[in-house]
Structure formats: structure tokens, C-alpha cells
Design a protein that fits this description.
about 90 residues; alpha/beta; elongated; about 20% helix
């Protein structure tokens, strides 16, 4: 019996390639829950904090009130912004 490989008809190879790229890019974005300091504030520096474009920083409402929330040197892209939610 011969081993045969059947090619996918039509646009299926392009669709599968698109889905693989889309899923790979989407999977990298994550939600990050920063912890408050002893002064009830949060300070994050993107140069020393592990994050990636597309990540979401989540300020938990259960930790309110915050005395301050400060971030610097965080950079996203037009298609993958860094988002902050409460």
C-alpha cells in the first residue's frame, strides 16, 4: 500500500495558516494582577516589570482603596495595547 498525502483543497491552507498565526498572537496576551505595597499603592516600571504588548493590568476592586497607581515605561503597539482595568 502506498503512502499518499492529500493536499487540502481550495483556501484551506490559507485559513489554517491564518488561524495558527492568530491563535499564537492571542495566546501571548495575559492578565496581570499587581500587588499593592504596604502604603496601599502600586508603582510599576516597565523596564523591570515582566510584561508584553497586549497584556492587561488588573487592579482588583477588592483591594480598593489605592493611595496611588503609577506606571512608567510601559509600551504596547497599535494592535496590542497595554490595558489597565479596575
Amino acid at each position: 500500500m502506498k503512502n499518499t498525502i492529500h493536499a487540502l483543497p481550495g483556501k484551506w491552507p490559507a485559513v489554517i495558516t491564518f488561524l495558527c498565526i492568530f491563535i499564537t498572537q492571542s495566546a501571548s496576551a495575559k492578565k496581570i494582577y499587581p500587588a499593592k505595597g504596604s502604603d496601599n499603592g502600586i508603582y510599576l516600571n516597565g523596564n523591570t516589570f515582566a510584561y508584553a504588548a497586549g497584556d492587561t493590568l488588573v487592579l482588583k476592586a477588592s483591594q480598593n482603596p489605592f493611595t496611588y497607581f503609577s506606571i512608567e515605561n510601559f509600551h504596547g503597539t497599535a494592535s496590542n495595547p497595554v490595558v489597565v482595568i479596575n
